[in-house]
Protein: Ferredoxin
Amino acid sequence: MTIPFILNGEDVVAQCSVDKRLVDILRDNFKLSGTRADCRSGICGACSVIFNGRIVPACLIPAFKVKGSEVITIEGFMQTIEYQDIVTGFHQSGWSPCQFCNTSVILGIEALLSQNLRPEPEYIQIAFSDIQCRCIDPHQLLFTIKTISGIRQRRIYGRSI
Structure:
């Protein structure tokens, strides 16, 4: 099967079997190891990617759904100024996710803030309720996201809104 799509801002084509999942296409065809295939059931978040603007587990996306889509992996996202906002926010807040959940947390923060630079605490809790990791303290996560939001607002608007 031939699958043209946009990967980290570049037009690419993958050749693979129809039963392959996006996580395997990324790892096997493009050697992107930041998208890990840990649980293969969509629960752990280690294979999170931004797929057509939404954060999704790549282990649940079949090859045929990838055709014509836009995929951003953690490797691609790390090349953006938005990633730098998140890293700065982690440093300023004194918290960062562990190596197990960092991909899902980082891409989750980006997906959240790209839709709303001032998300309500309840919305943040809902958005991150699927990430089950011992390192996540809900209050610290909320504080960190508010810190990152302020950094991004100052970068975009010159001040917090």
Remarks:
- The chain has two domains: 2-73, 81-157.
- The chain has a mean pLDDT of 94.
- The chain is about 45% helix and 15% strand.
- The domain at 81-157 is CATH 1.10.150.120 (DNA polymerase; domain 1).
